[in-house]
Structure formats: C-alpha cells, structure tokens
Amino acid sequence: MIETRRPGLAHACAAVLRRDLTLAWRLRGDMVLPVLYALIVTSLFPFALGPENALLRRIAGGVVLVTILLAMLLAMDAMFRSDIEDGSLEQLMLAPQPLAVMLGMKILAHWLATALPLIVVAPLLAGMLHLPATVIPVLLAALLLATPLLSLLGGILVALTAGTRRSGMLLALMLLPLCVPVVIFAAGALAAAQEGLPWIAPIAWLGAALVLAVVLAPLACAAALRIALDS
Amino acid sequence: MANWIPLWLHKLSSPPVFYRFAGSLRPWAITLAVLLGVIALYGGLVLAPSDYQQGNDYRIIFIHVPCAWMSLFIYGVMGVAAFIALVWRIKLAEVIAMASAPIGAAFTFITLVTGSLWGERMWGTWWTWDARLTSELVLLFLYLGVIALYHSFEDRRQGARTAAFLALIGIINVPIVHFSVNWWNTLHQGSTIRLLGPSTIATSMLWPLLTMMAATKLYYIASLFGRARVDLLTLESGKDWVRQIAQNEVRG
Amino acid sequence: MNGASLSSFFAMGGYAVYVWPAYGVFIIVLLMDWLAPQFRRRRVLREVRSRMARQDGRKARASAPASLEEEGRGEGLRLP
C-alpha cells in the first residue's frame, strides 16, 4: 500500500473555494446578469410611480432590498447545477473531508460571485431612488448581513431540489417563507435609520441569525443533499 | 410495561395492515365528523344569540377558529411524521406526512378566506397585514412548498423524504416568522384582528365552537386515512395485496 | 319555523354577504378535499387492473417458455 499524504481540511477548503471562484470568473457574463437585472428593476420604479423625490425616498430602502433579493434568487438556481451535471458534487460527497464544510465553501464562493457585486452597486441603486446619504451605511450593513443569510438558506433549498430537473419557480415558492424574517429585519433597520430612530436592534437580530445560519445551514445543506441525491 | 403497544405499532406500520385498519376506522370518523359538524352548525347558526356588539357576523368564528387551530395542528402532525420518516425511514410515516400537507393547506386556505371576510365586515377591508393573517399566509406558502417539492420528484419515496426535510425546516421557521411579524407590526402600528377577544365568551357560543373543533379533528383523521390509503395503493401497486383489492373492486 | 323567521335567518341580520360565503367556502373546500382522493383511488386501481390484464395476455402468448412471469412485478406505478 502506497502511503499518500491526505490534504488537510484547510487545504481542501481553499481548493474548493479557488475552483469555484475560477469557474465564476470564467463565466463573468453570468456574474454581471444579476447586477444588470437589479439596475433595470430599480430604474423601472420611478417610471411606474412618478419621479417625486419624497415618494421615492420613502420606498427606496425597501425597493433596493427586495430587488437585490430577487436578483439573488435569479442566480441561486445555478449554485450547484453545473456540479451536479458534471458529477463533481458526488465526488465531493464521497471525499473524506466533511461535506458540510465543503458545501459551506461552495456557498461562500457563490455569495462572493453573486451577492458581492450587488452590494457594490447597492449605493448606486439607493442613490437613484434618493435614499439619504446618512442611511447608506445602514443599508450596506443590512445587506452584508442579509445576503449571506439568504445565500445560506438558499443553499439548503437548492440542495433539496438537486434531484429534480426544473426548479426555478419551486425555489422561489420555498424561499419566500424563509426570507420573510430576513426582509422584515433588514427593511426595519433601514426604516428606523431613515426616521432617525435607533437601528441597532434589527441589525443585531440579523447578525445573530447569521451566526446561527453559518453553523447550522451547511450541516442542513449536507443532510438535504444526501437525502435528495440518495437513490 | 405493556409490551404489546410497540408490537402493535410495528404491525400497523406494514402497508396492508394499515390499509385495512384505516379502512375500518374511516367510515366511523367521517360519520361522527359530519354529525358533530351539523350539531355545531345548528348550535352556532341558530341557537347562539347574536352578539350585542357585533350582531350576527361573529358567527364566522364557528368555522374560522377551528380551521385556524387545525392549520397549525396538522403542520405539527406533519412535522412529527416527517421526523419519523427521516430518522427511521418508515414508509407509512412518509405517506402520513405527505397526505397531511394538502389537508393542512385546505384548512389554511379556509382560515384565510373566512378571516378576510371577517376583516371586510370589521374594518371594511379584505386584507390587512395583521400579524396573525400574515403568519397564516406564510403557513400556506410553506404547505404549498412542501406539496410542490413532493410532486417535483419522479420517485415518490425520494420526493416524500425531501419534502419531509423541508417540512422540518418550516417547523423551525414558523415561530421565527411569527416573532418577526409581531415585531414588524409594532413598528408599523398595524391593526390586529381579535376574533376571540379577552372578553368572556358565553356558554351558548362556546359549546358549538368546541364541537366544531372536535368535528374538524375527526374530519382530518378520516381524510388523512383516505389519502394515505390511496398513496399506499400507488406505492405498492406491484404487490399482491393491491392486485387482490383491484380485482375485488371490479366484481363488487 | 315560519316563513318570516326563516327568511330572517337567511338574512343573518344584514350580514348574509359575509356569513354565508364563509360557510360556503368551508363546505366546498372540504368537499373537494374529500372527493379528490376518491377519484385518484379509482384511477390507481384501474391502472393496476389494466397492467395485470397486459401481463396476463403476455403470459398467455409466451406460455410455453413461461420465463416472463415475474417481469414487471414490484415496480412502482408512476402517476403525474
């Protein structure tokens, strides 16, 4: 028997992360699509509601949040799609490294590739709707906590639909009940900041939920994948 | 301790045994449910006096409240069955969980419609983003998600197990949604529906309500057994006991 | 119950528009929930019977070798 050195966990994590980010970079066009979608949706609102500054300012926070959520939903379906098709996900399931950690890395890579560009353009979207500049740091904080939460929750659901062929609308139906609290707290923080009220409490709730999700969601994701691909 | 209870349960989890057991219990459950339902409707619609504040339209509570209670109760049953299905991989538990989902969705739908009819009368609007109504709507989406996920798999058992996992996630989600919607409501000063306020409820109103609760429970048992029987027939359609039933049915 | 009280019962003190649709929805939805599995049951049993008939026909044709007997047994029915 040949003694081979098994790569360590950190090494495997880095490899998964690097591979996914490289793949995402090769398909830069797909990365731009959600951003473009968010820009289009946001620019439609003034046409639909009229260009009054006061009205737009009032709805700006909520519109930006929901737009970014929908843009993420658009990209979520593809989270494990190519890995299931080329069989690399099954390799990952057979690998000696814990599946939950590997899936956590894949979700992180997906978040970096889709949510981060959206967060970068979020101030632009908010500016288009005249969100006051003082609220923009709160918007960024809310997004930095809410988008990874959505990615983690979405990861579980994408894993559940892994064995099915079409899942776009199904994913939206399943995600809606899960994302209600996230939207409420993120939008609540924005509304409070806009009215000059303390906004720490909802942000803290989001942070607490994110900590819980970072620990539990990869485990749930791994369990879901084992159930969905088990035959 | 009695040793026969686990033994009996083990026997019951075999599909043909459960099929016969459910078939013999189902007519009793539905007869009793219809009987109690008619008594409750008579008590609620005819015998109970009209409320001095709200007139006659409070009579909606005789169906609204039992249905709202059932929508949560059935989700609980589905969650327990889903847990058993995932941990012990018992076929019957998968069937029970998946048969519960459409019944729960039906009760949730009734709750929403009757609640909005009530709201139209009380504040002149069909829909308000009240904490309880919103939670109930989210519950309906959870049910629909479970049903849709179940049907999106070609393999029935795999679909059932996957949807069972989603049902368990939903069980964690329901209290979180309720808490967050409550928080959101205090933030936005929403109105609340009070179908059963803190005011004391007269006995003439209470007994039809309790009877209707019993009737909906029994209806759930009957409907669940009916659906579970059909699901078992579908799952085991290659087995001999199903063939015998199919043959007997054509003669009888 | 005389005619006047019966009509006043159906009028529900002017709230008939709210009370009766609520009860109607309750009964119609539960009736649909009750009937759906009955129809499905009939369809499932019909499919089982037609498959049995197909298998019997095949068995009759290939009666001499009698090796196809077990074919198709144990596989689940697939319904939409």
UniProtKB/TrEMBL annotation, chain A:
UniProt keyword Transmembrane helix present: yes
Subcellular location field: Cell inner membrane
Annotated membrane topology: Multi-pass membrane protein
Alphabetized InterPro entries for the sequence: Cyt_c_biogenesis_CcmB, Cyt_c_CcmB_bac
Signal peptide: none
Transmembrane segments: 31-49, 55-75, 107-129, 135-158, 170-193, 199-225
Keywords: Cell inner membrane, Cell membrane, Cytochrome c-type biogenesis, Membrane, Transmembrane, Transmembrane helix, Transport
A single cellular component GO annotation: plasma membrane
Gene Ontology MF terms: heme transmembrane transporter activity
Family membership: Belongs to the CcmB/CycW/HelB family.
Protein name listed in UniProt: Heme exporter protein B
From TrEMBL, chain B:
Protein purpose: Required for the export of heme to the periplasm for the biogenesis of c-type cytochromes.
Protein name in the entry: Heme exporter protein C
Keyword Cell inner membrane: yes
Residue span, Cytochrome c assembly protein domain: 11-188
Record's GO cellular component terms: plasma membrane
Family listed: Belongs to the CcmC/CycZ/HelC family.
Organism name: Dyella monticola
Keywords: Cell inner membrane, Cell membrane, Cytochrome c-type biogenesis, Membrane, Transmembrane, Transmembrane helix, Transport
Localization of this protein: Cell inner membrane; Membrane
Lineage of producing organism: Bacteria, Pseudomonadati, Pseudomonadota, Gammaproteobacteria, Lysobacterales
TM annotation in the entry: 28-48, 60-88, 95-119, 131-150, 162-181, 201-220
Molecular functions (GO terms): heme binding; heme transmembrane transporter activity
Bilayer disposition of the protein: Multi-pass membrane protein
GO term, biological process aspect, one: cytochrome complex assembly
Main location class: membrane
Pfam families named in the record: Cytochrom_C_asm
TrEMBL record, chain C:
Primary residence: membrane
A GO cellular-component term linked to this record: plasma membrane
Record's bilayer topology term: Single-pass membrane protein
Short name of any one Pfam family annotated for the protein: CcmD
Residue ranges crossing the lipid bilayer per the database entry: 15-36
Family: Belongs to the CcmD/CycX/HelD family.
Cross-referenced InterPro entries: Haem_export_protD_CcmD (IPR007078), Heme_exporter_D (IPR052075)
Name of the protein this chain belongs to: Heme exporter protein D
Subcellular location: Cell inner membrane
Ranges where the record places region Disordered: 50-80
Record organism: Dyella monticola
Residue ranges with Basic and acidic residues bias: 50-59, 70-80
Upper classification of the organism: Bacteria, Pseudomonadati, Pseudomonadota, Gammaproteobacteria, Lysobacterales
PANTHER family from the UniProt entry: HEME EXPORTER PROTEIN D
GO biological process: cytochrome c biosynthetic process; cytochrome complex assembly; heme transport
